[in-house]
Write a structure and sequence with these properties.
It comes from Heterosigma akashiwo. The protein is an alpha+beta fold. Among the domains are: 101 residues, no CATH class; 99 residues, no CATH class; 322 residues, no CATH class; 113 residues, Pleckstrin-homology domain (PH domain)/Phosphotyrosine-binding domain (PTB) (PH-domain like), CATH 2.30.29; 159 residues, Mutm (Fpg) Protein, Chain: A, domain 2 (Sandwich). It contains 18 helices and 59 strands. Strands 26-29-30-33-34-36-39 form a seven-stranded mixed sheet, covered by helices on one side. Strands 27-28-31-32-35-37-38 form a seven-stranded mixed sheet. The longest helix is centred in the last third of the chain and has 74 residues. The protein is globular, with a radius of gyration of 38 Å. The N terminus is likely disordered.
């Protein structure tokens, strides 16, 4: 609803202020000044921070050994924005593994790039002993004290890239070096067994404590942690923190060692004892060799292998009896099984065989204790609504029943279903979405649907079998089972499965730009960005201090040791079976023309979209992700999953390139031919399995599929290549309007996805448009050029007209041929045309409060809105009434009456209505200037009152508004208020469509003819300068009136060869705080004037709440070789940007905590008018 954005902005501003306060508490003013100056001047205390410049955006790092005069340099490193890279630097006998990160600094330092160098690996020691680490095969080791952290660098690339570990206390070795090393490049958790230094090789020295276990977690580090990979060493202090544990519940001693490790260092566990277990070879196979010693001697035949990562793995162990004693299966047999307890994988040993099932406590559930919860919903819908000005539903995401499904009469097909089963030992969840669709209602759209599932093929029944699966299949299916057994610090999932069916994404540049403008105020607040925006010097000081802390030798540099420790010993997630099914989608992207008035959404988004090429059914396939018996922290699992899908997306670049339209979509061509050839062979084969008649049908289906797919692929490729050639030819016309109109016709054709007939019809229209545009351009182009650029523009227009009369008909011929090829291609295979699930939501406007009212979706109101706006898409719908003999639909510009008997539609613009009155009970008549009237019969007094309330706000626009008869006038008499609005024009402007403040449509007065008066530029500007301060701040129609008079008088007095183009920018402060106008710079043009409006202080250049100011700029006279271009740059404390009369040059960037709305963007040949509203 109205005002929602303001509340969000206020919360964002409060968070930003808190960020600045927190940063300021750390440094006083003197320290801020000292640190900032030290950085800028290159003080020795900040020797690790330097200002640097590189034209090629590359940098090299050099280093020298102590006492060595030679400097060793790295290769040239790319330091483009958002670049992450690793490199190594060899310095004499030493080697360093490093990472470089380059990111853009926050505003107002946005032109600078912050380049950081940091170690690739950082090791943090959270054990209670000093840890020694070194690379496998090398001698050089370094020590890590308890709760210490330091970088680690591999010394030799010829040795394994693994790290050995041992512990010491008080300078004495507590353990030997680990038998094998762990890899810092393998993310995840493991544990390393370290033999105690006092343990010998003889059997008599073995004990349950013959080894210590150190847990090792390898994860990708956050940037503020000062490294690329963080390795955490920690020791379990509670049973719940052990990664592996062996529970010996038998009376015999157990011998345990890792497969491939030294059996002489086996772990011996006496009977009825529990011991933590670690891997001697962390990178080896996760299998252990197990042997029990009973009465007889141990032999190799009694050994068994167990996979500790395989939950529910079971093995039977034979025990050797005493010499001379016969083997008894009951007495000389033991069992081993693996289960999960908390966050620990437990190997349990027991005498005798284990039960076949249910050996864990609580495995069997009482059916009487099982609870099932099931919910079925017809659908769920989420809408994005833009407002309050320019109110419109722009997107609607719906979860609903598949419209292609045909359920039986007694079968209701839900859109969303949830089934939750609660058992004592397990919680199961089944979540299904039958159909998901995102409908696009933006005015700039090419496609009506942005996302929809691809059509499903109906499964075929095999011989003697029936089809058991549901058709169509649910679009999204999530199945999981969570164990309810006590799990300590772990959440245990016995199974987790996600399946997403193939879907298609259809987007265009215009829709993405509009969506970006909608989402821009929802940007998350970043602490660094907030501090830099509010106090640039404070950001410099706090950033510098962060790096100085690393230089000071603090353990771990920027690493937060407490947070790293908490993450290492925190909650873990265990998956016995995890399956994320493959994902397949098709992406179609269209480069449609974007109105320059919409370009204010941001520089980065617009420039990226402008460089993208059009894609046609680009296929993206992501492989399935599966894992069994995985235990990981949620953060570590999330990073692993993200890295997997990022690699998958990176591997799709060539496939996407193969779907570029102007290259003929070669990937689509090969895919269609492959599909056709496959069907040609497989369809007859499938039919042969069912019988002779099915075989004949299979031959027919296969041949038809082959022909259709080959024709579709070949003609689609020809159309793509031809379209690219014609696009290049169209650029030679140098007529931007002609090119944009071509693109619009092409996009409409693409959205319709018609067949051969549609292609031929569109081709004929394209041919005619090209010929007509070429012939009329000979006259139109010189006239347009003279209006825009004087004599020079006239000469350029003559050249464009002569070129266009030759090239434009050729372009029309080319477009006609491409349209026919596209029609043949689409008609052969029949591309799917996606339809919205419903009409665009109608947003009613309360006539009394002037606010948008969000109500439940009404199909009737949506139909009324469609009727009212189909001929005038720019109209804003306000509401409708179902009267006894007609429908009355209200928009901001007209009244639409639809007769019930004949369905005839009658359109009456408000300024073409004379007045309305109430001649009888429940009858309202709308009178026209010619004396005719439109009767509106109401059903009762309530409807009559509602009708009068709907008409009252528009009474000011009627030519004879003083005759409006309304005994039941609305509480807020907008009609009378509009009559009292002050105007600089005489009473001839009664037809001007004034409206109430909250919903006033800026620019409605544009184009109104004013009497000509010969004035010089100073007199024109002084008229507006004198009139604006006298107006009320809330009198928007009057302010708009003054600005239009300024523009009208300017263009009337600067015509022909003396044309000077102008720009008028109105800035309105809609917030509750003051806004300062820091500066205005004319980057192209001659001069600018700042015209103070109501509630504007010239002394402080401050715009008070609800105040307004007008910035007026004009250019030089047009010359032979240049146009009269005007471009100015605005800088305020709430936004900054550039506004120009050149197409596509209107870019505004709001400051953090502010929202900028363009209330009007009018760009004509001689003038450009913008109204900018600023709110919090």
């Amino acid at each position: 609803g109205e005002g929602g954005g303001g509340g969000g902005g206020g919360g964002r501003g409060e968070r930003m202020n808190s960020f600045v306060e927190q940063a300021a508490e750390a440094l006083d003013a003197e320290q801020q000044e000292l640190v900032a100056n030290a950085w800028a001047m290159g003080d020795d205390r900040t020797k690790a921070i330097r200002l640097f410049s590189s034209e090629g955006k590359t940098i090299a790092v050099g280093c020298a050994e102590e006492g060595d005069s030679q400097t060793y340099w790295s290769k040239n490193l790319d330091i483009d924005v958002n670049n992450y890279g690793t490199f190594d630097l060899e310095v004499g006998t030493k080697r360093y593994d490093l990472q470089v990160i380059s990111t853009r600094c926050p505003a107002p330092f946005g032109a600078s790039t912050l380049v950081e160098f940091m170690p690739r690996y950082m090791i943090a020691n959270f054990t209670e002993f000093t840890a020694e680490v070194k690379q496998v095969g090398t001698r050089r080791a370094f020590e890590l004290p308890p709760d210490g952290a330091a970088p680690f660098h591999f010394q030799s690339m010829g040795n394994p890239l693994q790290v050995l570990l041992r512990l010491q206390v008080n300078g004495q070795a507590l353990t030997d070096w680990s038998e094998g090393g762990f890899s810092p490049d393998a993310s995840g958790s493991t544990c390393v067994a370290l033999p105690l230094a006092a343990v010998g090789d003889g059997d008599e020295t073995y004990s349950p404590h013959a080894a210590m276990v150190v847990n090792v977690e390898v994860r990708l580090a956050a940037r503020e942690e000062g490294c690329a990979v963080l390795v955490v060493l920690w020791a379990a202090r509670r049973r719940a923190q052990h990664l592996y544990r062996v529970e010996n519940r038998s009376p015999w001693a157990a011998w345990l060692w890792q497969e491939g490790s030294d059996p002489h260092r086996a772990l011996v566990i006496p009977g009825f004892q529990d011991v933590e277990f670690g891997w001697a070879l962390p990178t080896g196979a996760k299998k252990v060799v197990l042997q029990l010693q009973a009465e007889g001697p141990r032999t190799a035949k009694d050994r068994v292998e167990v996979e500790l990562d395989k939950i529910n793995a079971r093995r039977t162990i034979k025990l050797a009896p005493k010499p001379g004693v016969e083997f008894d299966p009951l007495l000389h047999r033991a069992s081993a099984a693996v289960r999960v307890s908390g966050g620990t994988k437990v190997l349990r040993l027991a005498a005798g065989p284990l039960p076949d099932a249910g050996w864990e406590e609580g495995r069997w559930d009482d059916p009487a204790k099982m609870v099932t919860f099931e919910a079925q919903l017809a659908g769920v819908s989420v809408s994005l609504v833009r407002g309050p000005r320019g109110r419109r539903e722009i997107l609607a995401a719906s979860l609903a029943a598949n419209p292609a499904a045909e359920p039986a009469e007694d079968d209701w097909r839900p859109g969303v279903s949830v089934q939750l089963i609660l058992r004592p030992s397990q919680t199961s969840l089944i979540f299904e979405v039958d159909h998901m669709q995102v409908d696009n209602y933006m005015a700039e759209r090419v496609f009506d649907v942005m996302l929809a599932p691809s059509p499903q093929k109906e499964p075929k029944a095999k011989k003697g079998q029936e089809i058991e699966e549901r058709f169509p299949q649910p679009f999204l299916s999530v199945i999981l089972g969570k164990s309810n057994a006590p799990s300590g610090a772990a959440v245990c999932f016995e199974y987790f499965q996600v399946r997403l069916l193939e879907f298609e994404v259809l987007v265009d540049r215009g829709s993405l730009v509009a969506l970006g403008a909608f989402l821009a105020p929802l940007r998350l607040v970043d602490a660094a960005e907030a501090v830099a925006a509010r106090s640039p010097r404070l950001w410099v000081a706090t950033t510098t201090r962060r790096y100085l802390a690393r230089l000071a030798g603090r353990a771990g540099g920027g690493l937060d040791l407490a947070a790293a420790r908490a993450a290492a010993v925190g909650q873990r997630v265990y998956f016995a079976a995890l399956i994320l099914h493959p994902v397949k989608l098709q992406v179609t992207f269209v480069q449609n023309p974007v109105d320059p008035a919409d370009a204010y959404v941001g520089v980065n988004v617009l420039s990226i979209l402008a460089e993208m090429v059009s894609l046609d059914h680009a296929q993206i396939k992501l492989k399935s992700f599966g894992a069994d018996y995985v235990m990981e922290t949620p953060e570590g699992f999330g990073r692993t999953l993200t890295a997997f899908y990022v690699r998958q997306l990176s591997s799709q670049v060539l496939k996407i390139a193969g779907s570029i339209s102007m290259l003929g979509s070669p990937a689509d061509l090969l895919s269609n031919i492959g599909t056709g050839v496959g069907d040609f062979f497989y369809e007859p084969y499938d039919g042969l399995m069912l019988g002779p008649s099915a075989f004949a049908k299979g031959v027919k289906r296969g041949a038809t599929s082959l022909v259709k797919n080959v024709v579709h692929g070949a003609f689609n490729s020809l159309a793509g290549v031809g379209g690219g050639a014609v696009h290049g030819l169209g650029a030679l016309t140098f007529d931007q309007e002609f090119q944009q109109e071509r693109e619009r016709r092409k996009n409409r054709r693409l959205a319709e996805r018609g067949g051969f007939r549609s292609g031929v019809a569109q081709g004929a229209r394209n041919l005619g448009s090209g010929v007509v545009a070429g012939l009329t351009g000979v006259v139109a182009q010189p006239v347009r050029g003279a209006r825009q650029g004087g004599l020079g523009g006239f000469v350029r227009g003559v050249g464009k007209g002569l070129v266009g009369v030759v090239v434009k008909p050729l372009v029309g011929v080319g477009d006609a041929g491409v349209s026919v090829l596209e029609g043949v291609s689409q008609g052969a295979l029949g591309d799917t045309l996606y339809r919205p699930l419903r009409r665009r939501r109608a947003l009613d406007l309360d006539p009394r409060s002037g606010k948008v009212v969000l109500t439940p979706y009404s199909a009737l109101a949506a139909s009324a809105q469609e009727v009212a706006t189909e001929q005038a898409p720019g109209d804003a719908y306000e509401g409708f009434l179902a009267l006894t003999a007609s429908w009355a639909v209200f928009t901001d510009r007209r009244l639409v009456v639809v007769l019930r008997a004949t369905a005839e539609r009658q359109f009456y613009p408000w300024h073409e209505i004379a007045f309305y009155d109430l001649p009888g009970e429940h009858l309202v008549e709308v009178h026209l200037p010619d004396g005719a009237s439109v009767p509106l019969h109401c059903a009762g007094p309530e409807q009559t009152e509602e009708l009068l309330a709907r008409l009252a706000p528009h009474g000011a626009a009627m030519s004879q508004r003083g005759r409006n008869h309304d005994p039941r006038r609305a509480p807020r008499d907008w009609g009378r208020r509009a009559v009292e609005t002050r105007s600089l024009q005489d009473q001839d402007f009664d037809k001007t469509s004034y409206a109430r403040k909250l919903t006033y449509r800026w620019g409605e007065i544009n184009g109104t003819h004013l009497p000509y008066e010969a004035l010089d530029k100073d007199a024109i500007i002084n008229h507006a300068r004198d009139a604006l301060p006298k107006l009320n701040s809330d009198d928007w129609p009057a302010i708009d009136n003054v600005v239009w008079r300024l523009i009208s008088e300017w263009k009337d007095n600067h015509t022909g060869f003396g044309v000077r183009k102008c720009i008028a920018v109105v800035i309105v402060n809609l917030s509750s705080v003051n806004i300062q106008l820091r500066g205005v710079d004319v980057t192209s043009g001659r001069l600018h004037e700042t015209l103070p409006g109501p509630r504007y202080s010239e002394a402080g250049r401050t715009l008070l709440p609800q105040g307004s100011v007008v910035v007026f700029a004009y250019g030089h006279r047009a010359k032979y070789v240049s146009k009269s271009t005007v471009e100015l740059t605005l800088e305020t404390d709430s936004f900054s940007g550039t506004i120009s009369n050149r197409s596509g040059k209107a870019l505004l960037q709001p400051a953090p905590g502010y929202q900028v709305d363009v209330l009007e963007a009018s760009m004509e040949e001689k003038y450009c008018k913008f109204v900018i509203g600023v709110s919090k």
